[in-house]
Amino acid sequence: MGGKGKSDLTIPLTDLEDYGSRLRSIKTRMNRTKKIFESYRDDIGDGGVYDALDDFESNWEDGREDIGQQLDQLADLSDAVVREFKKLDDDLTKAVNDAVKVNEGKGSKGGEGGKGGKGDGKGEGGGK
After folding, report:
1. Which end of the chain is more exposed for a tag (fewer CB within 10 A), N or C?
2. What is the rounded CA–CA span in Å between residue 91 and residue 83?
3. Can you say whether residue 6 is alpha, beta or left, with left for phi > 0 and alpha for psi between -120 and 50 degrees?
């Protein structure tokens, strides 16, 4: 533990929860370049500009596939980190709650102490 009651490990789960979906969104937008170029074909005017964009998109396709796979892997890892930390948090919460219940249960039983046991206090086994 750190000096002022703060944990040494801090994970921004709220930010990380969105990270996987943001990576997948980047991949989706990245894969739309051809459609975007095609949608502006008539607006560009000069066919040479469109041909250059088409060449760029064709050359970009190979690298885009690799990047897309890496984005998928990062998104899956991000989701796994969030899932595992939430599970760990739930497990630790349950363990603490169970420990508190056990300790509360020990304190409330009270008057069962005494000599505790059967018999008349003379011992068992008799004499010789």
Report:
1. C
2. 12
3. beta
In three-state secondary structure terms, 1 is coil
Tens of pLDDT, residue by residue over 90-128, are 999 999 999 998 888 776 554 444 444 444 444 444 444
d(CA 80, CA 62): 28
Residue position matching structure tokens 């970009």: 60
Give the pair of three-digit tokens for residue 101.
């219940």
Say if CB 54 and CB 35 are below 8 A apart.
no
Q: What is the DSSP letter of 117?
A: S
Q: pTM of the entire structure?
A: 0.60
Q: What is the pLDDT of residues 24-49, one digit of tens each?
A: 999 999 888 888 888 888 887 778 88
